[in-house]
Specification:
The chain has 129 residues and is mainly alpha-helical. It has six helices and three strands; from the N terminus they run H-H-E-H-H-E-E-H-H. The chain has one domain: Winged helix-like DNA-binding domain superfamily/Winged helix DNA-binding domain (Arc Repressor Mutant, subunit A). A hairpin with a 5-residue loop joins strand 2 and strand 3.
Length: 129
């Protein structure tokens, strides 16, 4: 009898559905919103202050998309006036290690990326050489 060696698990193929989800989770504002909500729940204006460059419209759109995808929960408190607070959902919390890894990677490699960009730009501009 011939022995078989266990094969590595097959890497999933990137489908349109995968790409759409990754686009929504890793877009310009979602990553920052998720990272901020992993720290603690926040009200809308607290999120705007924590992410100062985001517009009200972009933040609203991002929160709705993250809520639809199960990453964020919107909690309405029956107070006067009504209070709305955003929490990281359990599914969103599973992204914490990945977010930390991406932010760590970008911090570590940003100097190398800046150098690569400068080299590329210098080579692409005939007037500079």
């Amino acid at each position: 009898m011939q022995e078989t060696t266990p094969s590595a698990p097959e890497h999933p193929k990137v489908t349109t559905e995968h790409r759409e989800l990754l686009d929504q989770v890793l877009d310009k504002w979602s990553l920052l919103v998720l990272d901020t909500l992993c720290e603690r729940p926040r009200r809308f204006n607290e999120l705007r202050r924590a992410i100062p460059l985001v517009t009200q419209k972009s933040l609203t759109t991002t929160l709705r998309r993250l809520e639809r995808n199960g990453m964020v929960e919107r909690i309405v408190t029956a107070t006067r006036p009504v209070a709305v607070e955003y929490h990281i959902a359990p599914l969103g919390k599973t992204l914490q290690d990945l977010i930390d890894a991406l932010l760590g990677w970008s911090s570590t490699n940003l100097p190398a990326v800046r150098r690569a960009r400068a080299r590329f730009d210098d080579e692409a501009d005939p007037a500079s050489g």
